[in-house]
Amino acid sequence: MNWFILFMAGLLEISWAIGLKYTEGFTKFWSTVGTVLALVASFLLLGIAMRTLPVGTAYAVWVGIGAIGTAILGIILFHEPADMLKIVSLGFICIGIIGLKLAHS
To answer: Which of 3, 22, 25, 70 is within CB 3.0–4.6 Å of 31 for a Cys-Cys bond?
Structure first.
């Protein structure tokens, strides 16, 4: 169950990271409210997951999910470049997340 909670925390990290772009420097009220709520929820779920998961593993997986998701959405939503090095690097992060999960199982 804590791995699911950690995964949800990672998805919320993607939400607040992308949300930061939409706040336009915290000048857009509703975007800022949504971003802050996603940030708080992400941290709360991360904290809950860390009750039983090792701190280093939980934090690395949380950051990895956020990094991969944010980079992919940056490519899709904001037309950021998607060169081969970026794609391969995101693949390595994904492999690292899978490795951490397998090492903890």
So the answer is: 22
